[in-house]
## 1
Amino acid sequence: MSLSWSVLPSPVGDLLLVSRAGALTGLFFSPHKATHKTWDEVRTSGAEDDREAVLAATRSQLTEYFDGARTHFDLPLAPSGSGFQLRVWEQLRLIDYGRTVSYGAIAAQLGLVPGASRAVGLANGANPISIIVPCHRVIGANGSLTGYGGGLDRKRYLLDLERDDALF
């Protein structure tokens, strides 16, 4: 199955949604500071399709999230990465809405030594499905905001959005 994409305007700027074979494979900010394919590369290697099922569901769920009406995403995901990256990204999905954890805590959850927090940070930074795989919920051990592929302003916005959830 070929690559499909859609652009969703959002409060944090345009988001590029990418799918293949019925699963979401990417969600990228514009601009995105990570090493993923650029917007132009995605657009030339796939077809724009706002009606493709997983892209339509992603658009709907993200709109609900930004409106404060959704705290959990229910989408088929297929991120591409190393075995270690996939393990880290699975841990990210376990971080509850409105919560934060440190890189070291994720390393500990994976049974790694405390010094592995740097490797966790690198895997976190390579996350190809921003927001839905909530890499923005990972902070420094001292509680500080640390690097974010979408920029610290976006990270702060997402954390504030979740903190101000009207459902609770």
Note: The first helix runs from residue 39 to 45.
## 2
Amino acid sequence: MTTGAWIFIVILGVLAGAVGGFFLARRYMMNYFAENPPISEDMLRNMMMQMGQKPSERKVKQILASMKAQSAKNTKKNK
């Protein structure tokens, strides 16, 4: 094989690895955020208290459920 062919194969391998790594990392992060949302109940309660609202347990659960539903909708839409 010539030197040009080796260079082409190496460049092709690097590009394939970069593209494959990007999509694997993206899938991993999507699954991670679906299982572990970046906001918790305590964080939501604190935000509501800072905004001057009294956070009831029902309202906190309702907001978390709507956020989870929105996340599922966006995940389904992106597939």
Note: The mean pLDDT is 88.
## 3
Amino acid sequence: MSLSMYSAFIPAAIHTLNNLAAILAKGAAHCEARKIDPSAFLTARIYPDMFPLVRQVQIASDTVKGGAARLAGIESPRYEDNETTFAELQARIDKTVAFLKTIKPEQIDGKEGADIVLSFPSRTFEFKGQAYLTGWVLPNLYFHTTTAYNLLRHGGVEIGKSDFLGGA
């Protein structure tokens, strides 16, 4: 039996976003328990030219909601990218997961050869559906989720691989 586009994408994205939410909750609890200003984490970067934690979460969210919408041929929800607290990031993840749960397998399955074009100010990317999912959407989701994890871990939040992977 082959793995469908939907099965390779939507459950994995929801699982990863839920794990990210749990990691962020541990970050918020860490701040509260140690009387640390949460903005120290929310604005943290590993290196000055990187995006801060807040933007890492926003991009992870944008990547999967945009990916699902493009593959399904529907409009992607637009979020304002104005989150400044752990609670607001949690709400963004919740909205993203809720959107992903509206996507049905028949909207994505069979889109392996669909033309997907991403236009940025400096570059345009052209993909077929399967290459878009496996070479852009999922790697970006994991990259930005991992970076958010690393920012929290570097700051002393007690999280580990099992938090990133979550329950199987």
Note: Strands lie at 115-119, 124-128.
